[in-house]
Amino acid sequence: MTQDPCEKCEEMLQAYLDRELEPAEVIQAEAHLDSCVYCRRRYRFEASLRRYIRVSASERMPEGLRAKLSELRQLPGA
Amino acid sequence: MAEVESETDGVARRLATEACDRVRFEEEALELADQVYRVARRLVGSREEAEDLVQDTYARAFRSWRSYTPGTNMRAWLLRILTNLNIDRGRRSQRAPDTTPLEEGDYYLANKVAAAEGEQALDQERVVERLSQDGIVDALSEVPHDFRDVIVLVDIGEFSYAEAAQILDVPIGTVMSRLHRGRRILKQRLAEETVA
Question: Hey, which residues 139-178 in chain B have their CB within 8 Å of chain A?
Answer without folding.
Answer: 140, 152, 154-156, 158, 160-161, 176
